[in-house]
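EI: anyone free to look at a 226-residue chain?
SC: sure, send it
EI:
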Amino acid sequence: MINSRKISNLFKYLFAIPKSIYVNLRVLPLNQAIKLPIIVSNKTKLISLGGKINLGKVKTGIIRIGFGGTEHIDYAYTRTLLKIDGVVTFKGRAKIGLGSKFIIDKEATFSAGERFGITGETTILCAKKITIGDNARISWQCIIMDSDHHPVFDKNYSIINTPTEVNIGNNVWIGARCFILKNTLIDDGCIIAANTTITKKFSGVKHSVIGGDSARVLKTDIRWCN
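SC: here you go
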């Protein structure tokens, strides 16, 4: 019996080959690019590829961009946006789901550890530095940004809202529609409840649930993964 889902996925990857070849050649050295470690969906809009990607492992398809998602995504019309003008490091397998916006500005650095995953329709805006640990799971319609993306000046016209880095630890699960803003830190093993805005550092609170209108620790000593 023919599995229609498997056939559909096969065609998705076949259609991805031309764009994937182009992206690999633009952001990787040739000896890595020819192995096609990065697979990019044909539904991905390439804004700019002036930067580079560093890979901890080089295997065909270890990085997948623009695939997957959730049942509420309109697969026919949704597309992913990709801009890499800075330096991106993927230490292991990574998946950036359909409809996500992955925007890494010039002179910015983004790093993700092993088993990095975005469900879909999440936005990452990196103007300075965003660091994410191993086994991070990010749900849909989240925004992670290390700047305000517009300047604010004091009376002497000096900028008072410069970009400040974001640090997300190992084994962190970020629920749907969360905002992770500049100058923040999330400790290892934490769960960020859906619709939470993080604007400060949560250190020394490993294995906690963080959430609420004014983000705070709601529960301690939790585990969500092995």
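EI: Helices lie at 4-27, 30-33.
SC: 👍
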